[in-house]
Amino acid sequence: MAYNRAVEGFRDREYPMLKNKTYLDHGGTTLYAKSLIEEFSNSMISNLYGNPHSSSDPAQLSSMHVDRTREQALRFFNADPEYFDLVFTANATAAIKLVADSFRDLATSSSTGSFWYGYHKDAHTSLVGVRELTGGDHHCFGSDEEVEEWLDGKFPMSTLGKGEEGEVPGLFAYPGQSNMTGRRLPLSWTGRLRRSPVSAHQNTYSLLDAAALATNCPIDFSNPDTAPDFTVVSFYKIFGFPDLGALIVRRSSAHILSWRKYFGGGTVSALTVFPATVQRKDTTIHDALEDGTLPFHNIIALGCALRVHKRLFGSMKMISRHTTFLAQRLYQGMLALRHINGRPLCDFYNDNPDCSPYSVPKNQGATVAFNIIGADGTYIAHSLVESLANEKQIFLRSGGLCNPGGVASYLKVEPWQFKRAWSSGYRCGDSRDLEIIHGKPMGVVRASLGAMTTIADVDNLLTFLAETFLHPTQDLAIREISLDEGIAFVDESPKEAHFQIRNKQAGYLPKHVRRAVVPDQTPSIPLEKIYSPTGSETFILSPYCPPKIPTTSVGSKAITELNGTSMPPSRRLSRPLKTKLLSWKSMTSLREHVSAR
Questions:
Q1: Residues 6+ apart with CB under 8 A from 330
Q2: Record: fold of 6-28+315-465
Q3: What pLDDT does 1 receive?
Q4: What three-state secondary structure class fits 175?
C-alpha cells in the first residue's frame, strides 16, 4: 500500500502542534518535527559555533559543519559534487535573483545591452520578475506545446524578441511544479535545450524553479548532461525548518555567474579603494557568490533536518507515493460532492480533470486547486472558504498564489478583465470584496499535502466541505418535488461522521447523511441508482444540517419532510409526495433561521 501508516504512529509525538488541527498548506511550508528542533537545540547547547570568516576553533567548527551540510544537501538531490555546487541563499527567490543579476550584468557588458528571457506561463511571480532585467527581450510561453515547438526550432523567431536573432545570451526558466495547481512540467526540457542543434539555442541556459516540486518529489541530478544549468530550492518547503534556500549550479555553466558585478564580504581575495581594484575569489563557485556571513546556524540546522527527515520518512520516493495516495483520495472525494440539484460542489483546476490526474506523479503533485460553487452555479469567494475552514482549525491557502499566468489561464481571466478588476480596486492579497468579478473568481483555494499528512486530515477537509457548503436548502427558489422525480430518505446516525466507498466513480462520500436525495432533472433514473451502495452511478448526497420544518401528511401517516425520523433508510415512497423545500441564499441567513428556532 502506498499510504505510509507509520506516520500515524509518530505524528502525535513528532508534530504535537497538530493536535486537533488539520494543516493542508504544505505548498507554503511543510512542518518541522519535534526531534529536529531537539537535535538542533542540543547541537547549539553542546557546541561553541563562531563566525566562519575567522580562523578560531569555534569558527572552524562552523566551517566544518557548513561544508559537510553543503555536500549532504547535494547528495539529497543525487547531485555529484564533482559536477555541481550548491550556493546557500535566503530563499528560492534570492537564488533566482542571483542568476538574474548575473545575466543582467553580462548583458550590460555586451554590445546589445540586453539578454533574452523565456518563461512558462505557470511560473511563480519570482520567475516572472526576471523579465524586467532583460532590457526588453522576453517571451512568455503560453503552453507546453509552445515550448516543444521552440525546442524543435519550429516556433516563429519573430515572436521571441531580438535576443534570439544574435549572439546575446538567453535564459529559459520554468517551474518543475506549478505552485498553484500542482501540475508537474517536463523535466526533460533542460536536456533537450542543451542538445538542441538550433543555433539560437546554443547560448541559452536553463533555470528550473524546483521549490514546489522538491516538497514531496525526489529530484535526481545523477545525469549532469540532462540536469538544469541552475536550480533553485527552498529547504523549509521540504523540512519545515530552517528558513533557507539554495541555488544548485551545474559547474560547466557556472562561468555565467562570474559576470555578476556586486561583491560582498567574504567573496573577494583582495580589495582596494584607492584606486578601486578588486580580486574576486575563484576557488569555488559558492565562495564567489555567498555574500557576507553565511546563516551558519541555519545551515547547521539543515544538517539536522536532513538526518531527521530520513529517519522519519525514509526516501523521497516513499513520501511521493504517500502523498500521491492521499491526493487521489482527496480529489475523488471532492469530485463526488454534489448539491441536491446535481451540480458539483467543486470546480477543479488541472489539465486532465477527467483522467484521474492524481494517479500519475510524473504529471501531478499532491496539490488540489479548486473553487466552491453554490447550488445556483455562482462561485463562493475563496477567502470565505479559507476563513470558514480556519474556524474549524483546517488550514488552507487561497488567492492568486503569486501565479498570475495560472490565474489567467485556468480561471480564464482575460487581460481586459484584469485591468477592469484593478481599476475597481482589486489588489493581490487584499481584495476580499472583489474576489469575484463578472462572475469569475480571481483566485483559488489550494489544499497541498505533505509527508506528515494522514487520511484523517483528508477526511476532515471532505467532511468540512460537505457539512459547510452542502444543504437541502441552497437557493431562494421554492421547488415542488414528487415521486416522479425520484426521492429517497436516508437516515444515518449523525455520530458516524466517517467516510466509506459508495462506488468506484464517486470515491469517498460522507456517511453522515440524513436527508432527501433528489436527482438533477433526471426523472428517468431509477431510485436504486441514486442511492445504492452497490450501484454504478454517481450519487447525489449531502450532509444534513436541518432547520425545523413542518411535516406533510401522506395518506394517514405523518412524515417529517427532511428529518426523516419516521422513515426507514433508503425507503421509496409508495405514492407521489408533493412538498416544498424551503431555501436560503447564504449560510448567514441559514444560521439566523436555525438559531431563531
A1: 358, 368, 447, 449, 458, 461, 462
A2: Aspartate Aminotransferase, domain 1 (3.90.1150)
A3: 57
A4: strand
pLDDT of residue 431: 61
For 108, residues 6+ apart whose C-beta sits below 8 A from its C-beta are none
Q: Which residues of 154-168 are buried (b: 16+ CB within 10 A; e: fewer)?
A: ebeeeebbebbeeeb
> What is the pLDDT, as a whole number, of residue 36?
99
Domain 34-309, CATH number (from 1.10.10.10, 3.40.50.1820, 3.40.640.10, 3.30.1540.10)? 3.40.640.10
pLDDT by residue (tens digit) across 245-266?
999 999 999 999 999 999 999 9
C-alpha cell, 473: 436548502
pLDDT for the residue numbered 458: 98
Residue that is written with C-alpha cell 463562493 in the block: 380
Q: Where are the domains of the chain?
A: 6-28+315-465, 34-309, 479-596
Report how far residue 248's alpha carbon sits from residue 258's, in angstroms, rounded to the nearest whole number: 15
The closest alpha carbon to 128, from 139, 116, 115, 119, belongs to 119
User: What pLDDT sits at residue 30?
Assistant: 99
Q: Residues 378-406: pLDDT tens digits?
A: 999 999 999 999 999 999 999 999 999 99
Closest CA to 215 of 119, 128, 313, 296: 313
How open is the CA angle 54-291-295, to the nearest 5 degrees?
65
Q: Which residues are catalytic?
A: 402
DSSP helix/strand/coil, 231: strand
Contact 82, 313 (CB under 8 A): no
* Intervals of the chain under pLDDT 50: 163-164, 472-597
Question: Residue 20 CB: number of other CB atoms within 10 A?
Answer: 5
Q: What local confidence, expressed as pLDDT, does residue 355 receive?
A: 59
pLDDT for 72 equals 99
Whole-angstrom Cα distance, residue 525 to residue 29?
A: 46
What pTM, to 2 d.p., does this model score? 0.80
Structure-block grid coordinates of residue 62? 562552523
C-alpha to C-alpha distance for 457 and 22, rounded to whole angstroms: 6
Which residue type occupies 393? Answer: Q
